[in-house]
Write a structure and sequence with these properties.
Helix content: 25-40%
Bound molecules: pyridoxal-5'-phosphate
Strand content: 5-15%
CATH architecture of the largest domain: 3-Layer(aba) Sandwich
Structural class: alpha/beta
CATH topology of the largest domain: Aspartate Aminotransferase, domain 2
Number of helices: 15
CATH superfamily of the largest domain: Type I PLP-dependent aspartate aminotransferase-like (Major domain)
CATH class of the largest domain: Alpha Beta
Order of helices and strands: HHHEHEHEHEHEHEEHHHEHEHEEHEH
Shape: globular
Radius of gyration: 22 Å
Low-confidence stretches: none
């Protein structure tokens, strides 16, 4: 079957791409290939297979050892490439494996890294704590101000520029195209790595806006069911990707397990339906919260009151399932989270079909430097809500009854 990508819609691609009927058993679904290694009858057969060991074209992959390539994982990588809309992907054991590798692999000696000040907490620890130990230094900037960013880029000392949008936890948005244009204008060799986890590939396509490497935590929306960790690096540069595959899998060993690849492959088939429902629910929940008298502030990229609504409108559609809101003070937040909610669960995760709430100041961002907390609006009274696929009136009723008790 020769599938013309543009001919098929995203939901069709999510169902059919990447997998093929197993020739020996006729199994329609990709099995979990729980085998560390792959055996060949003769050296002749081995050499023939070796031509495609790290195949530039992953459709032609051959397999030797699962750390480097595995058929279940490969099916996931092909489906992801089809959904993200890029030439190739490499999957990893977690989102952090994808992010740390994408930054390190693009780094060049005697240069620096430039990162946005509003980042996923562990990405922030990586650039602030781990990279300096390797002698790599990183500058932070508020990427909302393009004039300041331009001045910094004129110094031409960065090999990697990393950011995310909407950013964790407040859904702060940045103009992806404008930032990529500026970066590449000052240095065509500088690589932009971009964490698209919060939006998901359904809501936002950063590679089309100038990003060089799009990364995701597949543990979140890509899998969607909160039962497997994984990550992905996506790009249109297949030669670099195949070099990265060799370094990442064979040398660093950041490969996913075939079981997790299977779970994520399965979750991915419904991503279009899930994100549609989650975005619809999140908009309704955001509107409800905005009207509620005990809620002092709501951040949702799809609300006209969002500080970067215009930017979000340009680059997102729909607006995703993540939102944040503030109550009057931290006592109210603690009170709400103390056994008041019945459907929405208190947990540090997101992108799950189940609605999850957390308190960034005390939970995910507890050890973030105080100045960065202030700069990125991580206040004591802020809550982050990842809206699930439950019936929206049940989510809203849960918040309503919870808020009425505080
Ligand atoms: C969860 C998350 C990560 C890290 O992913 P893991 O799979 O947990 O390693 C990175 N970035 C963002 C925005 C995330 O939400």
């Amino acid at each position: 079957m020769n599938l013309n990508e543009s001919k098929f819609g995203i939901n069709t691609r999510a169902v059919i791409r990447g997998e093929k009927v197993d020739v020996s058993t006729h199994a329609l679904k990709t099995p979990i290939y729980a085998s560390n290694t792959f055996s060949y009858l003769s050296m002749e057969e081995f050499f023939e297979a070796a031509v495609n060991a790290y195949g530039i074209d992953p459709k032609e992959f051959t397999y030797f050892y699962t750390r480097t390539a595995n058929p279940t994982t490969n099916a996931l990588e092909l489906k992801l490439a089809s959904i993200i809309g890029c030439r190739g992907t490499i999957t990893t054991s977690s989102g952090m494996a994808a992010i740390t590798f994408a930054i390190l692999a693009n780094y060049k000696p005697k240069t620096k890294i430039l990162a946005s000040d509003s980042l996923y907490r562990s990405t922030n620890s990586f650039v602030m704590e781990i990279l300096p130990k390797l002698g790599i230094s990183c500058d932070y900037l508020d990427f909302r101000d393009l004039n300041v960013l331009e001045k910094q880029l004129q110094k031409n000392m960065y090999s990697v520029v990393h950011f995310e949008s909407p950013a964790n936890p407040t859904t702060r948005c940045y103009d992806i195209r404008a930032i990529c244009d500026l970066v590449h204008e000052y240095n065509a060799e500088t690589m932009v790595t971009f964490d698209n986890t919060f939006a998901s590939p359904i809501c936002q396509q950063p590679l089309k806006l100038g990003v060089d490497f799009e990364v995701h935590s597949s543990s979140k929306y890509i899998n969607g069911h909160g039962d497997a960790l994984g990550g992905v690096i996506a790009s249109n540069n297949n030669e670099t990707l195949s070099e990265f595959r060799r370094q990442l899998g064979e040398t660093l060993g950041q490969t996913p397990s075939p079981l997790n690849s299977y779970l994520i492959l399965r979750g991915l088939k419904t991503i279009g339906l899930r994100i549609k429902q989650q975005s619809k629910n999140a908009l309704a929940v955001a509107k409800f919260l905005e009207e509620h008298k005990k809620v002092t502030r709501v951040y949702y990229p799809g609300l006209p009151s969002h500080p970067q609504f215009k930017i979000a409108q340009k680059q997102m559609n729909p607006f995703g399932g993540m939102l944040a809101f503030e109550l009057e003070n931290d006592d109210k937040v603690r009170d709400l989270l103390n056994n008041k909610l019945q459907i929405i669960r208190l947990a540090m995760d997101l992108g799950d079909i189940q609605s999850l709430i957390e308190w960034p100041y005390i939970m995910t961002h507890y050890d973030l430097e105080y100045e960065l907390k202030v700069a990125t609006d991580v206040t004591e009274m802020l809550l982050r809500l990842s809206v699930g696929i439950e019936d929206v009136h049940d989510i809203i009723n849960d918040l309503e009854q919870g808020l009425s008790q505080i």
